[in-house]
UniProtKB/TrEMBL annotation:
Chief location of this protein within or outside the cell: membrane
Record membrane topology: Multi-pass membrane protein
Transmembrane segment boundaries: 59-80, 92-108, 120-143, 155-177, 183-202, 214-232
Domain of life: Bacteria
Organism: Chryseobacterium phosphatilyticum
Subcellular location: Membrane
Entry's Gene Ontology molecular function annotations: zinc ion transmembrane transporter activity
Classification via InterPro entries: ZIP
Assigned keywords, A-Z: Membrane, Transmembrane, Transmembrane helix
GO cellular component: membrane
Pfam family, one: Zip
Protein name in the entry: Zinc permease
Amino acid sequence: MAVLLLILSVITGVFLGKHFGKKEKLAKNLLILSAGFLITICLNEVFPQVYTSGESSNLGIFVIVGVLLQMILEALTKGFEHGHFHHHNEHNILPVALMVGLFVHAFIEGIPLANEQHEISPYLLGIVFHNLPISFILGAFLFNGKKDSKSSSYPSLLIVALFALASPMGMLLGNYFNPNLQPYFLAIVGGIFLHISSVIIFESNKNHNIDWIKIGLVITGVLLALMMHVFHTHPPVTNL
């Protein structure tokens, strides 16, 4: 089920981006909504699991590693993860760099899914919810330009396929890691989530005016994530 949701979230987002890619405001609103959802999942699900795991007290360092790693990946993706639109004929972003950046980003997010106790968890839904707007922008970038020839569509389909399979592949690899490493991978992903969601929320208002639509979207995302948190069964806290 988790693999299916991950793949469908990418395919759905790309499909919407292909057909509605010119509506940048729609993608921005989806991103802001997902940012509220993502930061709530990060603070209510990811970080509690990290800091109640009983592992090393240096886990905060791995959160910082996640933040720095995402900053490096954004040098490749040029901000796809937080809503920077690009057009296929622009030279400031190469499809190969985009493919590598998005693949690594999604692959790392998939690793902690291997040790999730529930088939559908808030963490999984956080990834799915975040995949939709990213895939929307990806679909707009790859398919919403001029008429695509068959020769130009094959690399685009390859990028979509790799992005869709990245998290499932990370999940598969995670089965071969020592379960005790789970908090460290979660800490890295928590840093990634924290960076992406905060950039989306604070970058979306350039004039620093009160934007009630943005505030409403963030609150809606937060409430959706809190619903997942309330109805999700959590494992007992480890005594430190």
